[in-house]
Amino acid sequence: MKKGEDRMRKPSMLMVCCALTLTLVGCTTSEQADPNEPIEQPTVSDTEKPAETPTDNETAPAEPAPEAEEPAETDKDEQPATEPEPPVEEEPVAEPSQPIELNGQANLELDALVLVNKQIALPSDYQPADLVPANIDFVDSATGERRMLRKEAARAIESLMKDAKAAGIDLKGTSAFRTYAYQVQLFNAYVARDGKEQAMKYSAPPGHSEHQTGLAIDVSSASVGYQLTQELEQTTEGKWLADNAHKYGFIVRYQRAYEAETGYMYEPWHLRYIGVDHAMNVHKTNVPFERYLEQLMD
Ligand SMILES: [Zn+2]
Fold this sequence. Notes:
alpha+beta; Muramoyl-pentapeptide Carboxypeptidase, domain 2; 2 domains; four-stranded antiparallel beta sheet; two-stranded antiparallel ribbon; about 10% strand; globular; binds zinc ion
């Protein structure tokens, strides 16, 4: 029975050890909650554990729980202290900085953000590669390629027109894509009729028309006889456009307030596609597209 007694004593000794080590673990755990000494705590618990685990197999399964908690607690304590300056890297609409123009020539790399205006021109032979017919109602005088837009813009105007119709807003396209050659004819006709100085206020010389980008479309309503007139602004349809076009990626490009900056008179009918995110920003910040791009590419 002596041997049996010896065997009985060994487990009891182990239990004492267990009780001691558990007490120690309990102490370190409670100490870790102390915010005054966040740096020392991991070293205290780390040095104790290697001593515990080899001596007692029984207590080993019980340990992972406090072990698992400890890193979580120290992480919480350390993160604000050691990493105080991870800045918010995400910006709403980040674009790689690119030149807006190249010696008076439009930078086609800007894609849907390409800038064309009185100073910046497209090459005379430029025609977008992804022109598709826009499946919307057009006035009868709009034929052939003048019913086409770049694919993304075509899908966007289709969506806009569908929702407009559902809201009881009666709009039709009057002119979308224009070739350089067509703009030559158009501009010359306007100059012959009104003189160049006057024509420059409402029409673009060849190469300087946004319609050649395949990203612009003129729209009008029955209430103004589908004419391109500033009276559109006062109609239900014109107001709906001003309030909703940006949700589909379009901006009313030539605003009354921008006349001095753009050189164009107010055109409530001329929509330019730039993508939803950018259109939302332009609408919100209420700046000419030129200025928006300068800020974006700064
Ligand atoms: Zn236009």
